[in-house]
Design goal:
alpha/beta, Rossmann fold, 2 domains, six-stranded mixed β-sheet, 12 strands, 19% strand, globular, binds NADP nicotinamide-adenine-dinucleotide phosphate
């Protein structure tokens, strides 16, 4: 669709930005819904973030996504932030309203919507969740799991002190455990989520013993390159239901697209194909 002078503009700010799949994702929806709008990759150095955000407002952008390494700093630069973004301590979605920036974080929303879409038998209150990792993505996922009513979260991180400070920070039923204490962590669990970068292309594999995990437990890896990680392959072989990480990326994009372009978009098989195309 040709852009008019009234075209709605949005984009994603990151450093680097060439690897981001968001332009492809939003580009697919813009075409699907025939929106008079554009979504651009915006390569912004960390020192220039504040200037770039002022520029977005000056240029009439409806808003933007922010990705690494800007998610925490961008939160500080927002005039207003949602409660969930404040608890996560980072934003990934900015909306320009009345000349100022409102920040939100939709990563946890994307995580839960992905599980709802692809594993509707799993219910948050079913039993303990095991979360591997205590980085930025883990924080958003922990907030989502707590808010969804998961009764117990066992949190394992290589650097245990990070898991402990995250548990203290967020409150609720989060129990930090030693990295490698697989049996203790997995016994009776209803959900296992990998939020570490282990298993991602170019990273070491995730070495985990799944023996103690009930076969009914849902296994989710938020790493999506490759789509089928070794964790998911091993879980599938022993009969566990599995969900890959791509859907989290697709669903987290929905709130932003709706705010900027005025259409509530759907996650479809065609969208998955478009994003995976090389
Ligand atoms: N599907 C999606 O939409 C989505 C969204 C966000 C992120 N992700 C993916 O999630 C992963 C994590 O992202 P992030 O932003 O949370 O990264 P991050 O903040 O850098 O955290 C990385 C985590 O991985 C752990 N880790 C790294 N190397 C390790 C190793 N050799 N052994 C054990 N643990 C190790 C770190 O443990 P320490 O604390 O001990 O360093 C930390 O818990 C990435 O692969 C990213 O692509 C996916």
């Amino acid at each position: 669709m040709k852009l008019s002078g009234e075209a709605r503009l949005a984009g994603v700010l990151g450093w680097p930005i060439s690897h981001s799949l968001s332009p492809r994702l939003h580009g697919h929806w813009l075409r699907e819904y025939r929106v008079d709008g554009a979504y651009l990759p915006l390569k912004v150095e960390p020192e220039k973030l504040a200037e770039a955000l002022r520029g977005l407002i000056a240029l009439g952008f409806r808003g933007a996504n922010v990705t690494l390494p800007h998610k925490e700093r961008a939160l500080e630069l927002c005039a207003e932030v949602t409660e969930r973004a404040a608890r996560i301590g980072a934003v990934n979605t900015l909306v320009v309203r009345d000349g100022h920036l409102e920040g939100d974080n939709s990563d946890g929303f994307g995580f839960l919507e992905n599980l709802k879409e692809r594993a509707d038998a799993w219910q948050p209150e079913q039993g303990p969740a095991v979360v591997l990792g205590a980085g930025g993505a883990a924080r958003a996922i922990l907030v989502a799991l707590l808010d969804a009513g998961v009764p117990e979260i066992r949190l394992l991180n290589r650097t245990r002190s990070r898991a402990e400070s995250l548990a203290e920070d967020l409150g609720g039923p989060i129990q930090p455990l030693d990295w490698g204490s697989w049996e203790r962590a997995l016994e009776g669990a209803a959900l296992l989520v990998n939020t570490t970068s282990l298993g991602m292309q170019g990273q070491p594999p995730l070495d985990i013993e799944l023996d103690a995990l009930p076969r009914s437990a849902l296994v989710n890896d938020i790493v999506y390159v490759p789509l089928e990680t070794r964790l998911l392959a091993a879980a599938r072989v022993r009969g566990n239901p599995v969900v890959d990480g791509l859907g989290m990326l697709l669903h987290q994009a929905r709130p932003g697209f709706e705010s900027w372009f005025g259409v509530s978009p759907s996650v479809t098989p065609a969208l998955r194909r478009a994003v995976l195309e090389t």
